[in-house]
């Protein structure tokens, strides 16, 4: 019986992949205006269908409560009128971005008269595997569409009905604009086997984008036969150099940790020069504790701040995504850089320093997608970078690193125009 | 016993990976001048050690002859004074290229005063797995070094001794410039198990670049837990549109097929509009046959050219890398585009046409790394594109597509400079 079901699923996934491939071929050739019309129609459909979306979300919420999900998880899952409106407005914002496809990235002539241009083209079919909020279904589907790609969206099972209701609006928008509805699809089931199948559909999926924790990313790298654009959660660091401005340190560290604890750009470990710890740390830790943050410190930190709990070695490698901060004293900038190289996830790190030479050394030596000076790590975000919207922050080194917006969801090709040139020799 | 040897190999490979990682950390921080000095010293060493390199090559040649390798394979393997000098000159040419590391790719300000720059950084440690000529060892090692990367080079077993002799010069150059010799390494053995180990060394290798045929690429995608930048051989097409200039057609097709039959940009299939075949094809096929090319044609082609052999279905999918050309009549440009979508390898395709609308349609619709108009597919080459040198032509869609030169062997990071900004909301 199980085999029969798996065979059915396999067949369904193959059909879904073939339809996505066909849709991507069409989408790659349509004018930007048609894609924008589809996005605006999807936004209108989402507003019109808000009650149905909220009702579907109710089914997911009920199941989540029965399964005992935490309050924070339930809040991430919840859709209300305001959040549906925010999703619709997000689609319109993506429609308003310039069309990346066809843009000329470079253009030059060769001495033999050949004219060479590098122009943006869609990536093709993108498979997105994510664990989090249902609004990712709207954002990720819309960004893929804007860049001329077809998308296969595999969200978490806890948001299955919400995501299907959102998908219905995206597909209605596509149809109203005369574009193939198969440009955005979801597997028909929440079975985990569908993920494994996606990772092997190399004939119909060009890129896999996993968004989630380390175990998801590792599974994807282990199983995927398709190129992967990994989005790992961030184990982000803020480093207080001895030259840091004390007032700025309080404000920026508080923001970097506590503005939102659940996003990937939240600071998880604070490093502080031991030479300045007695002066810099107490007001910073005071403010954090007053805001409800738990401090896990090394020996030196616990001496300075008795309310700190002793950190265990695993704290340096933990992405809490919660109101907890690991704090460690270092013997200077090189030790800070070495700690980050060993424990960081190459996402986002920030140095607070008035000493420009120290800042330059940190910006040069820290090997993360985003390296900051005197700014909160919570700015690690495509919108804050001015990219309009993002699928997430890529932590790999190939193709897109840092925020992944519409431009990062494209590839390119070379157009070579000649007048009968033959290669000599 | 086998297990003991495998354990030893595993341990050796891990040590090699750790040394490469350490070398990459250093290389990423050194000025371009030091890397160029290492490349020039390596060129000098190669000239001084030419007799040793040629002697090592003699051992490979002897073994290759005993194993009965073809004349063409033996020629690819052979190193003589002239070829060693060409390799040394190649290193100097790479030294003369601008340093890609640290270059600013983009720079902008945000309304909140944040200053954001995207700057080039090395990829890290690159594992290159290749099958072909020993000179790839020099070229690939030098390109990786120029871009600030450490390289682990796993060439074909048939060129093992030649490659080790070349490696000795690269490492001598590194040492003379005060750089770590571990920046360019080879596995200590020709055992195939070393490849499998490389593909799982995700803690010490950042990118795998396979160069070779479909079976190598497929094995790499199947086994690799590391991101892959694939270089597949090209099943390239030239398409004679009915508006093609007859004289240009003869010259360009002859060059595209016969200039060098063994390179990945060589045309393997010729498509021709049936409406113009009687006029266009005979002089083209005459010239090819006179140059020693075998023609495998569909029915229509065999009627026009009696010396053509009938093509079998597999011919449309074959990269001959030899003096053989598959030739097929098509009912117009859409059929040509569809044939290429079905049988091509997304490498390089060219249309010969005087009709500008047909050319524009072909350039827009053909989804290959390089699409040409009125030019020979043999121009698919980083040097011919003005990139200085290349590792090969990437046929994937992520990161680098088309020629892979020093710039394509880099990643980037974002530098964000602030004055104490906190993210609102």
UniProtKB/TrEMBL annotation, chains A, B:
CDD domains listed in its UniProt record: ALDH_F18-19_ProA-GPR (cd07079)
GO biological process: L-proline biosynthetic process
Annotated keywords: Amino-acid biosynthesis, Cytoplasm, NADP, Oxidoreductase, Proline biosynthesis
Domain Aldehyde dehydrogenase: 15-284
GO molecular function: glutamate-5-semialdehyde dehydrogenase activity; NADP binding
SUPFAM superfamilies linked: ALDH-like
Record EC number: 1.2.1.41
Annotated compartments: Cytoplasm
Its job: Catalyzes the NADPH-dependent reduction of L-glutamate 5-phosphate into L-glutamate 5-semialdehyde and phosphate. The product spontaneously undergoes cyclization to form 1-pyrroline-5-carboxylate.
PANTHER family assigned to the protein according to its UniProt record, in alphabetical order: DELTA-1-PYRROLINE-5-CARBOXYLATE SYNTHASE, GLUTAMATE SEMIALDEHYDE DEHYDROGENASE
This protein's name: Gamma-glutamyl phosphate reductase
Species whose genome carries this gene: Marinimicrococcus flavescens
Phylogenetic placement of the source organism: Bacteria, Pseudomonadati, Pseudomonadota, Alphaproteobacteria, Geminicoccales
């Amino acid at each position: 019986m199980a085999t029969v079901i798996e065979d059915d699923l396999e067949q369904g996934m193959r059909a879904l992949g073939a339809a996505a491939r066909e849709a991507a071929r069409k989408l790659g050739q349509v004018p930007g205006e048609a894609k924008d019309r589809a996005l605006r129609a999807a936004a209108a459909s989402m507003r019109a269908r808000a009650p149905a979306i909220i009702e579907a979300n109710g089914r997911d919420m009920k199941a989540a409560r029965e399964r005992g999900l935490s309050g924070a998880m339930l809040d991430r899952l919840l859709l209300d009128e305001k959040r549906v409106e925010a999703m619709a407005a997000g689609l319109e914002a993506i429609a308003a971005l310039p069309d990346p496809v066809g843009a000329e990235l470079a253009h030059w002539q060769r001495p033999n008269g050949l004219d060479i241009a590098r122009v943006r083209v869609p990536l093709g079919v993108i498979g997105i595997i994510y664990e989090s909020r249902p609004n990712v279904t709207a954002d990720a589907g819309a960004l893929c569409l804007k860049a001329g790609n077809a998308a296969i969206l595999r969200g978490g099972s806890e948001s299955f009905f919400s995501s299907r209701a959102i998908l219905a609006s995206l597909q209605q928008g596509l149809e109203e604009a005369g574009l193939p509805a198969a440009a955005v699809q979801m597997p028909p089931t929440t079975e985990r086997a569908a993920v494994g199948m996606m990772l092997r559909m190399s004939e119909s999926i060009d890129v896999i984008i996993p968004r989630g924790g380390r175990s998801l990313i590792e599974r994807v790298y282990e199983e995927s036969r398709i190129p992967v654009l990994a989005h790992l959660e961030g184990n982000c660091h803020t480093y207080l150099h001895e030259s840091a401005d004390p007032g700025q340190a309080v404000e920026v560290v508080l923001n970097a940790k506590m503005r939102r604890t659940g996003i990937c750009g939240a600071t998880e470990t604070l490093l502080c020069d031991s030479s300045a710890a007695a002066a810099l740390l107490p007001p910073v830790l005071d403010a954090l504790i007053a805001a409800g943050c738990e401090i896990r410190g090394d020996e030196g930190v616990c001496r300075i701040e008795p309310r700190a709990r002793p950190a265990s070695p695993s704290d340096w490698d933990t992405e809490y995504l919660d109101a907890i901060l690991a704090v460690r004293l270092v013997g200077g900038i090189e030790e800070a850089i070495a700690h980050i190289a060993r424990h960081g996830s190459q996402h986002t790190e920030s140095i607070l320093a008035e000493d420009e030479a120290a800042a330059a050394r940190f910006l040069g030596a820290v090997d993360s997608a985003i390296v900051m000076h005197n700014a909160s790590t919570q700015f690690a975000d495509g919108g804050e970078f001015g990219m309009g919207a993002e699928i997430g922050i890529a932590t790999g080194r190939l193709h897109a690193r840092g925020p992944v917006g519409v431009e990062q969801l494209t590839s390119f090709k070379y157009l070579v125009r000649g007048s009968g040139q033959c290669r000599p020799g």
